[in-house]
Amino acid sequence: MFTRHTTIGFVTAALLSAQVAAAQETAQPAPGQAGAGQVAPGQATPSTALTIYSTAEPGAIPPELYRPTLGQGGYVPPQEIPGYAVIKQERHVDLNAGVSTVRFTDVAARIEPTTVTFESLTDPDNTRVLEQSYQFDLVSRDKLMERFLDKQIELVQVLGDDARSITGTLLSAGPEGTVLRGAGGQVQIVQGYASAVLPELPGGLITRPTLVWRVAAQQAGRHLTRVTYQAEGITWWADYNVVFTEGENANSGVLDIGAWVSILNKSGGSYPEARLKLIAGDVHRAPKPAMKLARARGMMMDMAAAAPEAGFEEKAFFEYHLYTLGRPTTIPDNSTQQIELFPTARGVKAEKVLVYYGLAPGYRGFFPNPMTDRNFGLEMNKKVDTYLRFKNEKANGLGIPLPSGRIRVSKLDPADKTLEFIGEDKIDHTPRNEEVLIKMGSAFDVVGERRQVDFKIDVARNWMEETIEIKLRNHKNEPVKVLAKENLYRWVNWEIKQASHDYEKVDARTIQFPVQLKADEEAVITYTVRYTW
User: Fold this and answer.
1) Residue 484 has pLDDT above 90, yes or no
2) Of 7, 195, 474, 505, which one has the greatest count of Cβ atoms within 10 A?
3) Is this structure's pTM higher than 0.70?
4) ∠ CA 362-368-370, rounded to 5°
5) How many Å separate Cα 305 from the centre of its chain?
6) Number of domains in the chain
7) Cα(189)–Cα(32) distance, rounded to whole angstroms?
8) In this structure, is residue 415 part of a structural domain?
9) CA atoms of 74 and 72, how far apart (whole Å)
10) Is 129 exposed, middle or buried (0-12, 13-18, 19+ CB in 10 A)?
């Protein structure tokens, strides 16, 4: 039982925090003298390690998530940040021989309590956890008022320069007003007050989320322990900054590729001087219902510093890739941080690819039955899409497993020697020796047209023929190469009966015509396809 009064104010939450802190200090051991089950401060160099798993779609984090979270009580919807982390914290704890209670407050607010493990590294064979719990009944104005229903409290109202005290038994408290019963039995509804004076701080309320263990140990004294748990609300992705330089012709060039890791932390915990690891790959997790946890900030101990220039080291890890930062780093709560993933790869050879996909987007799929309507799929797309393509191989200056991420491309304007943004795309996890294709946008000076010039059908004999004409026009002052892509979408059984240009079969229902266009040249492609069923 605390003997001091606790004061609650609508206007100043700092008054409540000060009262709670003062009350708790009486129950804590003096600095440097941790009692049994208390985390001991100032010991050798316990450490914090952080492994972050990302489930964010590259480039899909909206700017709104970088801003401070609004809402009562600091609650954060768990679905906001698509990622999670495994946190490993080593701490010194004093344990008695027999059963001790350990309280641990340095945890992320978005912790998943069922993932928590506690182990003694000093005497692992003879130390075991009997019970563990996660306590999150945090002190708040509403919680305190709930605890004093049917008890006497004092409200203070301020009117101008005057203050008056109202004392009575608390009957209810809510947005509509606070109801008190006076000593004579009269009932008064108080609309608004500056502060409330309570006779004590009730038991069971805490100021930060707390992990509590009952630990049975044979060896008394100081143990080095490790606490491991998962926390939501933290994610990472890769950001690639690319500079494109044109080559000897319009269809070639070289890339300078720099890669950065972007970490977004809204887990409710800060991680100073942590050992950082990142997992790249699609790690499966069992589905689970969403839950809301109160926000708290962790206070971590320092660890020994590594070389400040040490970057990420990559290695295969199970069916994923693991990136380990060679130096400690600090990841504050409610922050975005960028760390270089690998040094800039320069002179990566790339090819500029122009693709004309004349079908409108709604007709690029495949259908379960023969599409015999002659007017089906006649809508036209006139845009010619532009791509950059390069091989992720060592001979091309790369050969590095590339985590999924957003890739932004710029080009130098020789007039003022500044880089100008020319397009961006997102890439999936890309192993070594695979191709990377970056969609840049649509060409300005190269256009296309697609139309149906003939259609025949014989329902009795189950066949139809369609003739398509594709026009490509190059208005540039230099030659270009364009791939005219066609989906044979009407049915799965098809045969090209006639074609004006050579074509390549891409897959079972796709062909493409590679066409070289001189400056200011137009090319006309025609082909006839027969479908049978």
Assistant:
1) yes
2) 474
3) no
4) 90
5) 27
6) 1
7) 49
8) no
9) 6
10) middle
Q: What residues contact 301, with CB distance under 8 A and at least 6 apart?
A: 41, 45, 46, 47, 48, 91
Q: Which residues of 146-161 are buried (b: 16+ CB within 10 A; e: fewer)?
A: ebbeeeebbbeeeeee
414 CB contacts (<8 Å, ≥6 apart)? none
Q: What domain range is 488 assigned to?
A: 346-402+428-532
Distance CA 450, CA 374 (A): 15
User: DSSP states of 303-333 as a string?
Assistant: -----TT--EEEEEETTEEEEEESS-EEE-S
Residue 312: what pLDDT? Answer: 87
pLDDT score, position 107: 84
Tell me, what DSSP letter sits at residue 13?
H
Q: How many CB atoms lie within 10 A of CB 48?
A: 26
Which pLDDT belongs to residue 45?
57
The whole-chain average pLDDT of the chain stands at: 81
What 3-state DSSP class applies to 367?
Answer: coil
**Local structure of 194: helix, strand or coil:** coil
Q: Report whether 211 contacts 104 (CB < 8 A).
A: yes
Sort 417 into a burial class: Cβ within 10 Å, 0-12 / 13-18 / 19+. exposed
Q: What is the CA radius of gyration of the chain?
A: 33
Structure tokens at 327: 């130096």
Whether 192 is covered by a domain: the verdict is no
CA-to-CA distance for 380 and 385, rounded, in angstroms?
A: 14
**Does 197 map to a domain?**
no
Residue 489 tokens read as 């979408």
The C-alpha atoms of residue 527 and residue 501 are separated, in whole angstroms, by 8
Query: Which residue would you say has higher pLDDT here, 159 or 15?
Result: 159
Q: What is the CA 340 to chain-centroid distance, rounded? A: 18
> 144-190 pLDDT, tens per residue?
788 888 889 998 888 777 888 889 999 998 878 899 999 888 998 88
User: Does some domain include residue 105?
Assistant: no
